[in-house]
């Protein structure tokens, strides 16, 4: 699984986040995150444990701007 929105787990994650009271625009943003998609997959498949290894590619790594960090914090409130 790679970062970004997909038609399977992102959609399920977004629906679950909205059902939990997260604003739709925030749910859409969060559902592109691998961790959130893995959680949606675990819920849908009944898995209780899973090991997730996150590999950061140097070619794709950027330093988040203060604006990006602020948007992320706002989305998870």
Description:
The chain is an all-alpha fold and about 80 residues long. About 55% of the residues lie in helices and about 0% in strands. The relative contact order is 0.15.
Nutshell version of this structure?
This protein has 4 helices and no strands. The chain has 77 residues and is an all-alpha fold.
Tally of individual helices: 4
Helicity range: 40-55%
Distance between the amino and carboxyl termini: 26 Å
User: How many extended strands?
Assistant: 0
Shape descriptor reads: globular
Provide tags for this entry.
globular, mainly alpha, 77 residues, 0% strand
Helices, strands, pairings?
Blueprint: H1 9-19, H2 24-30, H3 34-45, H4 66-76
């Amino acid at each position: 699984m790679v970062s970004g929105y997909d038609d399977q787990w992102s959609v399920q994650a977004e629906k679950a986040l909205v059902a939990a009271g997260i604003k739709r625009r925030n749910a859409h943003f969060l559902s592109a995150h691998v961790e959130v998609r893995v959680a949606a997959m675990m819920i849908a498949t009944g898995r209780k444990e899973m090991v997730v290894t996150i590999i950061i590619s140097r070619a794709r790594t950027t330093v988040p701007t203060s604006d990006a960090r602020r948007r992320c914090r706002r989305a998870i409130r």
